[in-house]
């Protein structure tokens, strides 16, 4: 199956921005639903953003990130992005990308107050 790898995490100040990338080993993003999730230690993993392939470009976001995060996909590069703006300490978590029942290793995002 497809292999996924996240990158772009790091430490930022509250109000700052980060762009996460998820690169796939195949063109899975061109044909399948994909998503970004995040997880804090000791808590349940939660969906952050969702995307469906096609010209329609359907997307969906968790209420907690609406207006601040944006999901997009570069099909030619087999890469999915998560643009995160106006970050808050509550956004601190390990972020994972997923498609075809596969997950990346995760990338840490830490937002300082």
Structure description:
There is one protein chain. The chain has strands at 4-7, 10-13, 18-24, 34-39, 46-51, 59-61, 69-74, 79-84, 93-99, 102-103, 107-112. The model has no long low-confidence stretch (mean pLDDT 96). It is globular and about 40 Å long. With 113 residues, it is mainly beta.
List unreliable stretches of 5+ residues: none
Number of helices: 0
Helix content: under 10%
Shape: globular
Mean model confidence by pLDDT: 96
- Counting DSSP E segments of at least 2 residues, the number of strands comes to 11
Radius of gyration: 13 Å
Distance between the termini: 40 Å
Largest sheet: 7 strands, mixed
Relative strand content:
over 45%
> What is the H/E string?
EEEEEEEEEEE
Alpha-beta classification: mainly beta
How are the elements arranged and paired?
Blueprint: E1 4-7, E2 10-13, E3 18-24, E4 34-39, E5 46-51, E6 59-61, E7 69-74, E8 79-84, E9 93-99, E10 102-103, E11 107-112
Parallel strand pairs: 2-11
Antiparallel strand pairs: 1-3, 3-8, 4-5, 4-9, 5-6, 7-8, 9-10, 9-11
List keywords for this structure.
mainly beta; 0% helix; globular
Short structural summary:
The protein is mainly beta.
């Amino acid at each position: 199956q497809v292999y996924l790898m996240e990158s772009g995490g790091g430490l930022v100040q509250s109000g700052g921005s980060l762009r996460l990338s998820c690169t796939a080993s195949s063109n899975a993003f061109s044909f399948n639903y994909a998503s970004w999730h995040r997880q804090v230690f000791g808590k349940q993993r939660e969906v952050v953003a969702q995307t469906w392939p096609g010209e329609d470009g359907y997307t969906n976001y968790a209420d907690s990130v609406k207006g601040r995060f944006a999901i997009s996909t570069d099909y030619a590069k087999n890469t999915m992005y998560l643009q995160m703006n106006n970050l808050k300490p509550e956004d601190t978590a390990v972020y994972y990308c997923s498609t075809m029942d596969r997950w990346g290793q995760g990338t840490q995002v830490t937002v300082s107050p």
